[in-house]
Design brief:
By secondary structure, the chain is of the alpha/beta class. It has helices at residues 11-19, 27-37, 52-62, 80-94, 110-118, 128-137, 153-156, 162-170, 187-195, 227-238, 250-262, 276-287, 321-328, 349-359, 371-391, 399-408, 411-423, 478-490; strands spanning 42-45, 73-76, 101-104, 123-126, 147-151, 177-182, 201-204, 215-221, 242-246, 267-270, 293-296, 309-314, 338-344, 364-365, 442-443, 449-450. Helix content is 41%, strand content 14%. Strands 3-4-2-5-6-1-7 form a seven-stranded parallel sheet, with helices on both faces. The structure holds adenosine-5'-triphosphate and magnesium ion. A motif (Q motif) lies at residues 2-30.
Length: 491
Amino acid sequence: MKTFNELNIEANVLDALAKMGFETTTPIQAQAIPTALEGKDLIGQAQTGTGKTTAFGVPMIQKIDPENKDVQGIVIAPTRELAIQVGEELNRIGHNKGVKTVPIYGGQDITRQIKALKRRPQLITATPGRLLDHIRRRTIKLQNIETVVLDEADEMLNMGFIEDIEAILAEMPQKHQTLLFSATMPKRIQLLAEKFMNQPEIVRVKSKQLTVDHIDQYYYDVKENQKFDVLCRSLDIESPDLAIIFGRTKKRVDEVVEGLLKRGYSAEGIHGDIPQVKREKVIKRFKDQATDILVATDVAARGLDISGVTHVYNFDLPQDPESYVHRIGRTGRAGKKGSAYTFVTPREMDHLKTIEKLTKRQIEKQSFPTYKDVMEGLQEGAIEELKQTVWAHEGDNYREAAKRLLSEEDAVDVVASAIKLLAKEPSQTPVNLTSVEPLRVKRVKGGGQQNNRGGRGGNQNRRGGGGGGRRRRNNQKQDGGNRRNNRNKNQ
Ligand SMILES: Nc1ncnc2c1ncn2[C@@H]1O[C@H](COP(=O)(O)OP(=O)(O)OP(=O)(O)O)[C@@H](O)[C@H]1O
Ligand SMILES: [Mg+2]
């Protein structure tokens, strides 16, 4: 394994990396940093949670002249939360060098952003829609841009964003370096990307599988109306530190949150209809572990790095197999272990196969836990807790009270009641979700599959800054167009 010292990185950046606790490089960092430092255009692909942010952040910051107060680099990301997170990481890497980064994203007061821009950051992390707004208002000037990064590049070059990205790139100065990063890079998107890059070097970390191997992957074969109970039972048995649950639509997310709260879990939701200030609060509370469960649309599928996420649930299958890779990649980051559970209804089995084909990995079927399994598990846990307390003599001060109780009640009844109290029986409050249709894939000519993905307009509407949902191309057949429309509205 290489250290950062071997990569010709300047001292103050090395210092910052050491302060961040990074000792050795990850493979994508070892491979991409030297190539990017040579000034070459680059497409970097490596698994989720393997340090791609630093892989583009270091060369980008190294190129900056801290005396020059113009914007010299821009990272474009598909969601507001990701723009914020990448901005924070760049601020850490650039701290010692005096390089400032400002995040610019939809849903935040534009005058506040203009004020932040007046403090002359050299780097900007942005969602596309809001970035375009600033470019047009001339509050962001691009003439001194040296580096453009598309984080989650395949997503940025997909239908929902491509027109915004093209518009932004058209404004860039002739000579600039372009870096593209993602954990997934479908061939057609790579070919598209190469058109606006200058002989890009492809840096791909070799791995047998597309997903990280320390994420255990399972699926539950469930009927639509069983999903919620299976979810609760699984949460009870697994007791995740933090879990992210992905639902297909905003309504779905709201309903799952409501159901979880009814049953006493600590859960909050995030999707495109939630006001930005609230979105940021929800993420913060989840990061601080004040909320245990985040229920989300695909707005949280890409890039988010939240430590402590031990479990990801695909309550509904994702629209496309790439999204599966990103969603489950919210756990198992930086070498940690994680578990991913995917709910598959009988008519969706084909989708599971498509996912397995893409990831080159089998997803193991898991029989789902019943209420009885959960109760047994909880009772075992309670008994274990009692035994530990006995062995540690922690009950010594309560012996008199115990004797008095036993003189009045049957001993077995007393212990049984203690176990019941400790086991905290899970709530069985009935919860009925509006059922969703099984995922369908439209077959298109040529035998390929066309999934009904569309813009991410719902995540961040145009005014709100971000997805180019409303500019979606409308040359599809009625059916496809409508479905994409629905997706935009639903996320
Ligand atoms: N060299 C390193 N040593 C230790 N930890 C690192 C190193 N580089 C990055 N990390 C940590 O690994 C985690 C994942 O990094 P990052 O978010 O950049 O992953 P990614 O490859 O961009 O993932 P995704 O595809 O999901 O966006 C972060 O918490 C980051 O701080
Ligand atoms: Mg990333």
